[in-house]
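TA notes, week 10

Several of you asked for a full example with nothing omitted. So below is the full record: structure tokens for the whole chain, then the designed sequence directly under it. When grading your own attempts, check the secondary structure regions first.
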């Protein structure tokens, strides 16, 4: 989650972060918000006085999803996918929908 929210690769999109996110959600892996907050504070990506909440994480994700070029994200991960048609659904709408439906906290 930290990589998806905070990794900056300049112009390169890191498709693996998106692939991992889909995998964790499909496995119903709950988000450890306290650990994420500690990592984000450590890297300077969370400086708020208040604790990180699931709602705040979702808003940060939605913002991230709005700004991506999904063709570039797909191109980055495509060489590692046996059936590239599985990436056809990857879009802003897809990532927002699965976040709303599946992201949960510990």
């Amino acid at each position: 989650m930290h990589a998806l929210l905070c990794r900056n690769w300049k112009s390169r999109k890191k498709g693996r972060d998106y692939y991992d996110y889909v995998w964790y959600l499909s496995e119903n892996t709950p988000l450890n918000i306290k650990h994420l907050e500690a990592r984000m504070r450590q890297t300077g990506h969370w400086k708020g006085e208040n604790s990180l909440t699931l709602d705040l994480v979702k808003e940060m994700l939605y913002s991230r999803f709005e700004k991506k070029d999904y063709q570039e994200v797909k191109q980055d991960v495509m060489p590692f996918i046996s059936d590239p048609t599985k990436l056809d659904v990857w879009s802003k709408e897809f990532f927002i929908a699965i976040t709303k439906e599946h992201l949960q906290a510990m």
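DSSP finds six helices and no strands in the chain. Use that as a sanity check on your answer.
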